[in-house]
Write a structure and sequence with these properties.
Elements (H helix, E strand, L loop, with lengths): L10 H17 L4 H20 L10 H13 L4 H20 L26 H9 L6 H15 L4 H6 L5 E2 L4 E5 L5 E5 L2 H18 L19 H15 L7 H14 L4 H8 L4 H4 L1 H17 L4
Antiparallel strand pairs: 1-2, 2-3
Helix pairs in contact: 1-2, 2-4, 3-4, 5-9, 6-8, 6-10, 10-13
C-alpha cells in the first residue's frame, strides 16, 4: 500500500484509511487494481477533509461529502467518475460504522449523480488566447504554467497523461509527443510550435531550478520538486481562468474538449481526431460532432442567403 505522501491527511483519518485498505485488500481479497482505485479516491477525499479542518471520522458530516462531490464536478470529472468516488467514500464510512470507528454514516442520504452524456464545455479560440496570456512570464512558475497549458491544449491530453509525461516522451524534432493513455495504450500526438517552444524553455531554464533529490522523471514539477497532481493542475488552471476573466466553468478536461472541437471546426477528419484523443471507440469522439453541428448551423445562419 503506497498512500500518496504529497497529500496531507490528519493522523486519525490516515489510520482509518489504512485500516479500511487492509480490510478490502486482505480480508475481502479485492483485486489490486480495485484496491488501488479505492486508495486514490479516498486519499483525495481525506486530503479535502483535512483542508476543511476535519481531523477525525466522527467530525465528518454530509456537508463535507457534498463538498468533495462538488469539487470533483468542478474539476471536470464525468458523472460516472464522481459516482465511483462516492461508492468508495460510502464503502469507507460503512466500514467505519461497522467496526465502531465512527458513530454515523454521512453518505446515507447522498444520492449519486445522474449518469448521462452531456455536450462538453469548450473555450473559443479567443478565450484560449486570453488564458495563455494570463500566465506571468516574469516568474519561473508562470513559465512552467504556460508550457503546461500549451501542451494540455495543443495535444488534447487528459490531465493524467499530462502529469505522467517524461522528457523521453518528447520528440520535438518531429513535432510529436508519445502519450500513454487509458489501459496504457500508447499513441503519438502532434504538438504545435507554441507547445514545443514553451516546453523547451521550461525544460532548459525552469525545471532544473525546481528539481530536488527526490524528484522523479516527470516533466511538470511543483515548487517542492514533486510531480504536479491532478488537484494541483486544476487549481492552477482555475487561477488563470479568473485572471483571464473567463466566466465559463473550466477544468483541465475543457482544454481537451476545446482541442477536439477546434480541430473539427477547422475541417479535421473525425477518425484523425479519434486517434489524437486516444479514443478506442469512435462513438466516444462523435460527441464532438454535436458541437461541430452547432458551429455549422451558425455559419449557415450567418452566411447563407436563404437562412
Amino acid at each position: 500500500m503506497m498512500i500518496d505522501a504529497s497529500i496531507e491527511i490528519a493522523p486519525l483519518l490516515m489510520d482509518a484509511l489504512r485500516r479500511f485498505l487492509d480490510h478490502v485488500g486482505l480480508e475481502r481479497g479485492l483485486a489490486d487494481n480495485t484496491t488501488g482505485a479505492y486508495e486514490r479516491d479516498l486519499t483525495r477525499y481525506l486530503g479535502v477533509l483535512t483542508d476543511l479542518g476535519i481531523f477525525g471520522p466522527d467530525e465528518i458530516t454530509q456537508k463535507e461529502v457534498s463538498v468533495l462531490l462538488n469539487l470533483l464536478t468542478e474539476m471536470g470529472l464525468e458523472a460516472s467518475s464522481v459516482a465511483r468516488n462516492l461508492t468508495a467514500v460510502r464503502m469507507f464510512h460503512r466500514f467505519l460504522l461497522a467496526e465502531e470507528y465512527s458513530e454515523n454514516d454521512p453518505t446515507q442520504h447522498i444520492k449519486p449523480p445522474k449518469l448521462g452524456r452531456k455536450l462538453p464545455s469548450v473555450l473559443n479560440i479567443y478565450e484560449i488566447e486570453r488564458l495563455m496570456l494570463a500566465t506571468d512570464l516574469e516568474t519561473p512558475l508562470g513559465i512552467r504554467d504556460r508550457a503546461m497549458l500549451e501542451i494540455l491544449y495543443g495535444a488534447g491530453l487528459r490531465v493524467s497523461e499530462l502529469i505522467s509525461l517524461t522528457p523521453s516522451d518528447l520528440f520535438f524534432d518531429m513535432d510529436v509527443i508519445r502519450v500513454f493513455g487509458k489501459g496504457s495504450r500508447e499513441r503519438v500526438v502532434p504538438i504545435g510550435s507554441e507547445g514545443v517552444e514553451w516546453v523547451t524553455t521550461y525544460l532548459n531554464n525552469i525545471r532544473p531550478t525546481l528539481m530536488k533529490p527526490h524528484s522523479g522523471h516527470e516533466i511538470f514539477l511543483n515548487f517542492r520538486g514533486r510531480k504536479l497532481s491532478r488537484m494541483g493542475i486544476w487549481k492552477i488552471l482555475k487561477q488563470y481562468v479568473g485572471i483571464a476573466g473567463i466566466e465559463k466553468k473550466v477544468s483541465p478536461h475543457t482544454m481537451r474538449h476545446s482541442f477536439a472541437t477546434h480541430l473539427l471546426e477547422g475541417g479535421a477528419d473525425l477518425r484523425a481526431v479519434q486517434e489524437m484523443l486516444g479514443h478506442a471507440d469512435i462513438s466516444t469522439t462523435q460527441i464532438y460532432t454535436h458541437v461541430d453541428r452547432e458551429y455549422l448551423k451558425e455559419v449557415h445562419k450567418t452566411f447563407h442567403p436563404r437562412a
